[in-house]
């Protein structure tokens, strides 16, 4: 690591703060089952900075992949071409995920509630939806079969709701006890990273609690963007700012990605 | 033994009104040309199975071919919604459709169980999810050995499966390379399988990319092979052409509007421009 790594940058966006913080959650050597979008951006930033040996796997069957540019879809050719190997989708879900080979699942979501339950199915009533969302995809089993789960999404009152309209994917259930006494189940969500703060489930009752505010963000801002009265940890911290190198790598990655997708 | 047919004849022979059809290809090798042929032949009341409906089922749904869709992730990857799927579910246009939704893990297992000739698939899945409350095809059973509660879903056994692959040889053996998804499982789970290919070569075993562990589907497990050059566009064929990401983005605006969609189908599918 060069001296530049510790240099802090004052000029960054809230989105960059979120991606860098999410990336830092991944430790070198972890095996991570990556969701498309923000998780994929964060996981690849981690791989290109502090965690070169992080193993990234995508549900398309691409195992230990090192994409040069971010995939638009979960099955872009780039993922296969840069993978150690590509297995069938049943093998991916059965052997690698269900078989317990994944340390962390990295997910995004449309809605999350105070017990970290995720909704990617619909807004409104199932029989007469107001908005039909894409559905579960890999998330329901990633969330229960991975060792733990990181979640990243932008903060807004529509996204952070007291109770999700539909539990597509288990956090800790409607009462916070959804994982209690279930055999062979992962720890579940251990942190949620938004563009305003970092949250963790309370160790006792599992309610999502703000543990770290991003620099310049106030408690009031987080509360306004959250659909329930959110708790703050007693020892509330300030999230470390992105380093110049993290920002440089992230910006290059996004620029490469834009060029690649525009060229096709 | 696979018969080498034209795409028109393969679809006409095996895809009947009311059939249960799986067109597979996980983002890669999506059989668009075959999907368009189904639209051109005006098939109706199909039960369409696909893990990720993608644009191909958005088009079939919007064209009125589907009565039911079984899927696990119904979005436009990296872009947003499938607007034709949404319009059908939310507003019943062009007709009301029934949906049955699963998770990827369950559908992948269900295809595998179909290929294995089993009535059901078992997985450690759906724990705490509310999907079982809206899909009566998700049940739970107790393991007879350990007592563990496990999810069970019926296997997928389509009347016809359609997949796209890079190449076949004169004996109908098919080589699939790259992201292989559940293509092999879909072929083996179906009563009849149609495989569209980029090209037909004399003998796969003499091809440079043939090796002992290559993903090969034997010709005698396939009903029909049809050549469909660029048959997976706008998805891609590993080694042949890349994914047309720009079209996936453009589709958002086309599919958002019923008239724009209908015009697109008329111009690009009914008039056969992409065939």
Structure description:
The complex is a heterodimer of chains A (264) and B (275). With 264 residues, chain A is of the alpha/beta class. Chain A has helices spanning 14-25, 38-48, 77-81, 89-98, 139-145, 219-224, 244-262; strands spanning 31-34, 55-57, 62-65, 83-86, 104-107, 111-112, 118-119, 122-124, 129-132, 148-152, 189-193, 197-201, 208-213, 231-238. Chain B is α/β, with parallel strands linked by helices. Chain B is built from eight helices and 15 strands. Classes of the chains: A alpha/beta (264), B alpha/beta (275). At the A-B interface, α3, α4 and α5 of A face α4, α5 and α7 of B.
Topology diagram in text:
The complex is a heterodimer of chains A (264) and B (275).
Chain A: H1 14-25, E1 31-34, H2 38-48, E2 55-57, E3 62-65, H3 77-81, E4 83-86, H4 89-98, E5 104-107, E6 111-112, E7 118-119, E8 122-124, E9 129-132, H5 139-145, E10 148-152, E11 189-193, E12 197-201, E13 208-213, H6 219-224, E14 231-238, H7 244-262
Parallel strand pairs in A: 1-2, 1-5, 5-10, 10-11, 13-14
Antiparallel strand pairs in A: 3-4, 6-7, 8-9, 11-12, 12-13
Helix pairs in contact in A: 1-2
Chain B: E1 3-4, H1 7-14, E2 20-23, H2 32-40, E3 46-49, H3 54-62, E4 66-71, E5 75-76, E6 80-81, H4 83-91, E7 98-101, H5 104-115, E8 120-123, E9 139-142, E10 149-154, E11 160-169, E12 174-176, H6 183-189, E13 192-201, E14 215-217, E15 224-227, H7 245-256, H8 258-270
Parallel strand pairs in B: 1-15, 2-3, 2-11, 3-4, 4-7, 11-13, 13-15
Antiparallel strand pairs in B: 5-6, 8-10, 9-10, 11-12, 12-14
Keywords:
heterodimer, A: 264 residues, alpha/beta, Glutaconate Coenzyme A-transferase, eight-stranded mixed sheet, two-stranded antiparallel ribbon, 7 helices, 27% helix, globular, B: 275 residues, 2 domains, ten-stranded mixed sheet, three-stranded antiparallel sheet
